[in-house]
Amino acid sequence: MNKESANSLTMRIVIGMIAGILLGLMFQAILPKDGDLIIPLGFVDFYVKGFFIDGLFEIGGQIFITSLKMLVVPLVFVSLVCGTCSLTDTSKIGSIGGRAISLYLLTTAIAISIAILAGILIAPGTGVNMAADITFSASEAPTLTEVIIGMFPSNPFDAFAKGNMLQVIVFALLFGIAVALAGDAGERIAKTFDDLNEIIMRLVIILMNLAPYGVFCLMTTLFSELDPSAFANLAVYFFTVLGVLLLHALVTYPVILKLLTGLNPVTFIKKMRTTAMFAFSTASSNATIPSTLNTTTKKLGVGNSIASFTVPMGATINMDGTAIMQGVATVFIAQVFNVDLTITDFLMVIVTATLASIGTAGVPGVGLIMLAMVLAQVGLPVEGIGLIIGVDRLLDMVRTAVNVTGDSMVTVIVGKAEGELNTDVFNSTDDTSDDRIDFHHLKDK
To answer: What is the mean pLDDT of the chain?
Structure first.
């Protein structure tokens, strides 16, 4: 391995991730289990648990996540305003949105179909003994009508404060169109927003340079608390979901990309590595938006007028990874409760989960809410969700990586269709977005 690749952001994140996992597992090994302590209880409570896990690493990881989320609203708003006011024909917004939403729904339907098929063939719920005291209650999901009405903000500043991405997107689109129609005043404002966009992207690069340390803290905290027994009891379910997630990311997306654009899917997957790792470590599509936008525009060559629209929309409504979990989980829970689902039931699961990906957009705990809707639709007990919660945290990280890969794939396809894709940048082997920041010489060029 040469020095350049060893120092790349991707490699540094991998090192931070592996180091965090190993340290977390070491902490878990020395934490008290059933009163059998490897080292004195006082030392464990104060130093290992109190100072390191709940203190130093928890603080470091949460500061990293919070810093990423801090950038999401201003980045999306400024980028989308810049992209919208730069469009020569604002009617293209409808074309861009229509293509993006259609592709997001298509990939979600494909994802849950593959998941259901895998669940039927592998049968992860066969022989599982259901606990008698399983309980789970999911929040009620809003209707599609309520979501559409809620997309339009009565107070845009309240939408900014609450991070309501659909409302931020709508307001940014309207604001960008107004800027484009405002003549000389609009041109002056557009230049200001271009400058703001450049500054915010610099902030993104700063955080990306600090990512290995944030990922290290997040992995240490997570793997010090994972329950190995939960994975042992649900191993077949866990690896079924994991296998379908990897299949969808590494086979379905590349095939769709190749068929619709003719671009090299291997190049796409390689350039998605860093962003996928961001998504895995944060388990949040919204928190990964800065990295996703940076990758789609700087590495994949998509115009900002496209990426600034499709990426935030995808982070909000694209639920491929969640759909895969729902498909396998539905079959798993049906098998545990010895309920035979018909072909009609399976078709209903596909339709419900696909439409629910938009109908529950932006709702906290959206994955479990959607699963509760699906289970209720086919007459399965919602309490069965309690069976899979123990292993859902790690799967959530993987499906977030799948979701952002899907967001980027759709962005490339829409960019190609709209003539806003620089194929030279896409095919380039130079990682121009992997900027290194010298914090000792900030003004050096």
So the answer is: 82
Q: Residue 434 falls within a domain, yes or no?
A: no
CA 269 – CA 401 distance, rounded (Å): 12
User: Does residue 437 belong to any structural domain of this protein?
Assistant: no
Question: Do the domain assignments include residue 377?
Answer: yes
Summarised one tens digit per residue, pLDDT across range 93-148 is 888 888 998 999 899 999 999 999 999 999 887 766 554 445 555 556 566 677 67
CB neighbours (10 Å) of residue 243? 15
Distance between start and end Cα atoms, the chain: 28
Residue 85 has a pLDDT of: 82
Which residues constitute the domain of residue 410? 3-427
CB 289 within 8 A of CB 315: yes
Closest CA to 228 of 16, 19, 33: 33
The helix/strand/coil state of 421 is strand
Is residue 273 in a domain?
yes
Measuring CA to CA, how many Å separate 277 from each of 38, 40, 216, 300?
34, 37, 12, 17
Domain count, the chain: 1
Instruction: State the residue for tokens 């803290």.
Output: 217
Name the phi and psi angles at 143, rounded to 5. Answer: -75, 165
Collapsing DSSP to helix, strand or coil, 32 comes out as: coil
Cβ-count burial of 67 within 10 angstroms (0-12 exposed, 13-18 middle, 19+ buried)? middle
Which pair of structure tokens corresponds to residue 147? 């979501």
Residues 6+ apart with CB under 8 A from 134: 383, 384, 386, 387
- The encoded tokens of residue 151 equal 């997309």
- Return the DSSP state at 169: H
CATH code, domain with 264? 1.10.3860.10
Instruction: Report d(CA 442, CA 445) in Å as an integer.
Output: 8
- What confidence category does residue 2 fall into, taking pLDDT thresholds of 50, 70 and 90? very low
* Token pair in block for residue 90: 């604002």
CA 53, CA 47: separation in Å to the nearest integer?
A: 9
